[in-house]
Design a protein that fits this description.
31% of the residues lie in helices and 26% in strands. It is built from five helices and seven strands; from the N terminus they run E-E-H-E-H-E-H-E-H-E-E-H. The relative contact order is 0.15.
Length: 161
């Protein structure tokens, strides 16, 4: 059985090997982030890679795909807690994909965030149909962190995948 409740810190000396090892309780915020699984559907390689790396640095399990078709094929096996969807995908629009995700048997339903390079709405907290939240790109690292912190607890992935 795997435990995510502790983290190990090691100071390594190139000649002598491990010099110091410390095992301590993992901070609650980091532990909670590790329970998230994020699916990013973004066809722009620069934006997709940036989001993937940013969330991975927060300790999150991330899958980045470039089409809605790929997302629908893999969403049930990946079982994300958060799905970040670009509005302008090459094979379907983001709203169509968000609504298709809503019709899947996933329980709990992943939190769906729409992303657009264009103007969305000055009140980004007001959801659009099919989405729990909508954001204008570029999205700051601070905003990405706050999305993780604000996710409803019931959407956390508590099972091992």
């Amino acid at each position: 059985m795997r435990s995510n409740n502790f983290m190990a810190t090691a100071i390594i000396d190139a000649k002598l090997g491990i010099d110091y090892v410390s095992i301590s309780p993992m901070p609650t915020s980091l532990r909670e982030h590790m329970l998230h699984r994020i699916l990013i559907i973004e066809d722009d390689p620069g934006v997709g890679q940036l989001l993937k790396v940013a969330f991975e640095r927060e300790g999150v399990d991330v899958l980045w795909l470039t089409t809605g078709t790929e997302a629908l094929a893999q969403i049930e096996s990946f079982h994300p807690t958060l799905v970040m969807i670009d509005y302008g995908l090459p094979d379907m629009d983001g709203t169509t994909l968000a609504n298709a995700i809503e019709r899947t048997p996933l329980k709990p339903m992943p939190y769906r965030v729409g992303m657009s390079g264009g103007f969305i709405n000055p009140d980004e907290s007001r959801p659009h149909p099919g989405f729990d939240m909508c954001l204008s790109k570029p999205i700051s690292l601070t905003r990405l962190r706050s999305i993780l912190s604000e996710l409803p607890v019931e959407r956390l992935s508590l099972s091992e995948h």
